[in-house]
Amino acid sequence: MTADPVVDDLDSSRAEVLDSFFLPQLTAPELGGLTWVTRRVDGGGGAVLLRSPVLTPDVVELVCDRLLAAQAAVLADRPVMDIAEVVGRAVARWYDPDHPGRRLAERLLPQITGYAPDMVRRGLKDHLKTFRADRLLRFLAADFDNPLVLDGFQPNRAGGRSRAFGPRLTTQVFAGNVPGLPAWNIICALLVKSATLGKSASGEPLFPVLLARSLAEEDPDLGRCLAVAPWPGGAADVEAAAFARSDAVTVTGGQAAVQSVTARVPTGVPVIAYGHKVSFAVVGREALALNRYPDTARRVARDVSQYDQQGCLSPHVVFVERDGGVDPQTFSAALAGEMARFEVTRPRARLGLADSAAIEQVRAQYEFRSYDDAAGVALFASDGTTAWTVVHEERPAAFTLSPLNRVVRVHPVSDVAELEPLLAPVRRYLQTAGVACAPERLTGWAEVLGRCGVDRICAVGQMPDPAAGWHHDGRGSLAALVRWVDIEGAAELTMESYDPEWTRPGAASGTRNGREGL
Amino acid sequence: MTADPGAAATGLLRDELDLRLQALIERAPEPGGPDARAQDAEFGRLALELFAFQYEHNVSYRRFCRVRGAEPGRLGDWTQIPPVPLTAFKELPLAVQPPAEAAAVFLTSGSTDPARRGRNHHPHLHLYDASLRANFAASFLPDLDRIRLLVLNPPPATQPHSSIAYFFGRLVDFFGAPGSDFFVDDHGVQVSALTAALREAETAQVPVALLGTSFAYVHVLDALAQEGLAFQLPEGSRLLDTGGFKGRSREVSPEGLRAAFGERLGIPDARCTNYYGMTEISTQYYESGLGGAGPRPKTVPPWARVRIVDPVTRLPVPDGQPGLVVHYDLANRGSCLAVLSEDTGYLVPDGDPTSAGPRPFVLLGRASGSEARGCSIAVDEFLTAVRGAHR
Amino acid sequence: MNAPAASELPDGVSGLGRSDLLAGRVAVVTGASRGIGAAIARALGAHGAAVAVNYLRNADRARQVVRDIQQLGGRAESFAADVTDAAAVADMVAAVAERFGPVDVVVNNALHSYTFDPLSRRTAWDIPWADYSAQFTGSVGGAYTVCQAAIPGMRARGNGRIITIVSDLIERPGVPYHDYTTAKAAVVGFSRNLAADLGPFGITVNCIAPGLVPGTDSSAVATDEQRDDLESATPLRRLTTPADVAGAVLFFASRWSDHVTGACLFVDGGLVMR
Fold this sequence. Notes:
The complex is a heterotrimer of chains A (about 525), B (about 400) and C (about 270). By secondary structure, chain A is α/β, with parallel strands linked by helices. In chain A, about 40% of the residues lie in helices and about 20% in strands. Chain A folds into two domains: about 1-275, Aldehyde Dehydrogenase, Chain A, domain 1, CATH 3.40.605; about 280-465, 3-Layer(aba) Sandwich (Aldehyde Dehydrogenase, Chain A, domain 2), CATH 3.40.309.10. Chain A has 19 helices and 19 strands. The longest helix of chain A has 19 residues, at about 55-75.
C-alpha cells in the first residue's frame, strides 16, 4: 500500500479529489487560511486523491478548545439513552444501500485498501449491524449494571451511589487495517459523552470521516463534538497539544505506535491501547462429521480470508481435532478448496514485493518439509499466485504466526488441552478463538481457552464480527474510558447529621421552642 | 558420470567438468572484452552440464526440479534452471555427495531463526578458492600482488563452519603480506591490538587493507570515537566490508559508514568497497564504480549471473525494477548452482541489451518479514517478544 | 513450465493445436496405446501436460505414443498396468508421481475387451449375468481402481480432474450392447457420486460420451451400412473422431471447465442432445 504525499503535479483528470477530514469546529475562512496537502492513496484498486489541511499545534489547540466547549454545551448533560438513540439513527442511515456515505465507502474503500469490493461491501454491512440502536444498549449493559450512572449518581452495591464520568475529550488514534473499525472507537466515546479528536490512519482515512458526517447530519450538536483528520504518526508537537487537552487517549495499532503514544501521554491521562493481537480457531470432531465438514471449512475459510487476514480477529492457525468424520488432513484439503472459492468472488489485494516474498518463503519451507513423508506436512497453495495457502502440519514446533494475506496453518490435536503449551508463549497476544464443537463441550473449552489468554470465544465463521458489547481486548469498551465518582454510603448517613433542621442556628431550637410554646 | 550417488567417491568431483569450471573462473578476463560472447556461451554450456550433474546427484533437488517440469535435456538455456529458495538449505540435505564426505560445511549465521541454520556442503574448496582469488585480485587488489591484511574477524580455525571466516582466512593465505593478522577473538574486537597495528602502518607508511563485516567496523569506529582516535593510513590503504546488520540492533547507512572510514581511518571513499556474499553460494560480488553518489552497483564475475525476478512468477522483472535476486554461480558445485535469495535488488539498466556477459546489480536489502498492516502482529515483533518471554 | 514456446513447434495433433494450457499438469491416460486413448494422450502432451501413457499389453504402440509426444517437445512415459488390478495401478500412480510429480488428471479410457458386432451380439433373452458382471468389473471396476489410487494425491493438492470415457449408447442404444452399455451407464452414476463427494476438495469428475468412432479397434466390426445410417442420422453428418473426444478431454482437463462437475458431455455430432 502506498501513500505518497503529492503536492503539485497531480493528474487530477484521472482521479477525484476528496476531503479526508471532518473539522466542523473550524470556519471556512479559518480552514482557508491553512496549508493543504493532497495525498495519493492507491491500494491497488485505483488511485484516490485525498485532500486535508496540515494540522499544526496551534490549530489542534483551537480544535480541542472548541471540542471541549461543544462537549460541555451539548454532550455532557445529554441523557445517555438519547445519545444511543441518535447514534442508532445515524448508523441506520447506512443500512440504506443508497445512502451517499455508504455508496462512497463501497466505491472508494476497495480502491484505497485494495480489498475486494464485495468483501468491503459485506464487511461494512456486517460491522455496522453491531451498532443498531438496540445493540448499543448491549454495549451499555455489558459495562454498567445501570447505564444511568452516565447521567447521574445511582445507587451502587456498596451502599452508596456512583456516577461514571467519561472523558471530556478523547484523542483517538484509529487503525486502518480493517475498514469500519473506527466506528467502534467513535461510538464508544460518544456513549460515555466524550468528544473525539480522531487521527485517521494513512491506510484507510476515509471511513471515520464519512461516519462523522452521518452523525452530524443526524444531529449537528453531536457533530460538533467530533473532529477527524490525518496527521503524521508520532508528530510530537501536534500530539502533545492534543494530549494536553484530552482526558483519555486511545490508540489502535502496532507495538511501536502504542509504545510511542504511551510514552508521550502526560501522567494521569489514561491510555487505552489496542495493540497487536493474534487469533486462532479450534474445530472439534463434531464439526468434522460428514454432513458438517464442508460447511465448517467454508466458515473457517471466511474467517481467514475476510480482510485478507489483516485484522487481529483473523485466525493464524486452525487446530483440528482428530477422530472426526473426516481426518484433519482431509479438513485441510476442504479448507483449501473453500479458500480457493472465496478468492474467486472476493480476490485478495495485490501484494508488494516483500509480502509476496514472505508467502513464497513459507511455501518453500513447507514444500521441502513435505518431501519427507514422515514429516506429516502437506502444502495446499493457489496455483501461480500467492492468493491463498493452507499448510497442514501434524507436529508444530510452536504456534507460528502467519505472514498474513490468507496464509493459514492447520494443526491436528487430540484434545483441546494440547493447546496450552503451544499457546503459552503467545498468551499476552491472544484475542479471539473461533470454535466449533458440541454444545456440552463449549464451557469446558472456554475454560481452557480463557486460561490460555483468549478474551473472545465465538463460533467459527463469526470471527471477523465481534458482537455488540464485546469486552474489546478483555476490557470494557466503555468502562475503560470512564472515571468513577463514588458517594460513600457512610457519607450519606453522616450527612444526615448536617441536616439543616439540626444545624441551622436558631431554627432547630426555635422550632422546638415554638412547638413547646404551642 | 555415474547415476548412482552411492558410487561417488571423494575424488569424483575433481572430474573433467570441475577442471573446465575452474578454467572458466581462472581465465577471468575483463567483462565486455573481445571474447565476452564466447565466454557467455561457455557459461551457458557449463551451467547446463552442472545442472545435469546436480540434478542427478541430489535427490532433493531432483524432486524440486521434477515438480517444476525441469529436467536435464529439456532446458533450452541456463535461465530455465530452477533456483532453490534459501530455505532449502535449512530444510533439506542439499548435497551432491554424502554430507559426511564434505571437505567443508558452511552454516548460515541463523540470524533470523537460530533453531534452523542453512548448510552449504562443499565436497572440495578448489572452486571456492579459485572464485575468491580471481574476484579479489580483479576487484579489490588489481594493483598489488600482496598487501598487509588486517582482518576484523576471528581466524578461520576458530570458526570452521563460517564461510566468512574461511573467506578472510584464504585471502590472508593468498594475498596477505607480512604483518597480516586477525583482530577478533571470543571477547570481541581486540581494539588495542588493532590500534597498534594501525598506528604502526601509519608510522611506517605501509599500506594496509582492512577486511571485516560492517557490524565489526561499527564496533571499531565506536571504540575509536570513544577514545578520540583517528588515523591517516598511508596512500594505497583500502577497506573491504560486507553485509548489513541482519538481526542487529543498530543500523548504519553505507554512506555514513564510508564517511566514518574517511574520518577515523583516513581511507578515502573510493578505496572503501562493500561486497555481498552468502553462505549458500560460492562467489562474492564486489561494488563497482567506486566513488560518486547514489547506490553502488555490484559486479558479477564471468562465472556467475544474477537475475532479478518476481517472487511469485519467478520471471525476470524489467531492468531497474526491484525484485528478488537469483544467483547462478558455477563455483557452487556441491549443492545447487541456482539459488533464489531473500534479498531484493535491481539490475542496472544497460545501454546495450544485446551485450553478452553478466550484468551489474544494485542490492536493496532483505525481503523477509511482512509489512503487515494494522493490528495483526508483525512477525519480527512477535519473535522478539517470544524470545524475550523465554529469557 | 520449461517447455519450449508453443509457437516454435509444429501443430502436433489432429488439428487440436499446441499450447501451454496444461503446463505443469500430470495426466494419466488409461488404455492410451491406441485409438481414442492415444489421441487423448497426444493432445494432453501437445498442450503441456506430462502424460503417463498406460497400456495393458501393447508396449510398442505405447512407446510410439510416448515418442510422438516427446517429438512435439512434450513429456511422456509409458506405464504398463491392468486397470482392474489395484496393486498394479497403485504402483503405476506412485511411479508417475516419482517421474513427473503427483497426478492431476486421470482419464479413464481403458476398455474391457469387447467386440462390437451388431450381428453377433447377445440378446436380451440370452445374455448371461456373467457378461454384465465382467463389464461392471472392467468399466466401473477399472475407473474405481484408478480413482482410488489418484484421489489421495489430488485431495492433498486441493485439485484434480477425473474424466471418464463412456458412450452415447447410454442414451441412445442404437444397438443394444446390454452388458457394455449398462456398465457405461453405471460409470456415469459412479462419476456423479464421486463429483458430489470430491467437490469440496476442488476435484471435478466428468464423463464424455462419444458416438461411434470408426477406425478404432473396438469399432472395427461395425458394418458400413451401420456407419452410413449413423452419419445420416447425425445433425453434424459425420461419425466421431478420436480428436473430437480428445478436444472434450482438453476442456475437462483444463481450467476452462473449472466450474463443471458431474457432467456427461455427448460428443457425437448431436445424435444425442442433452
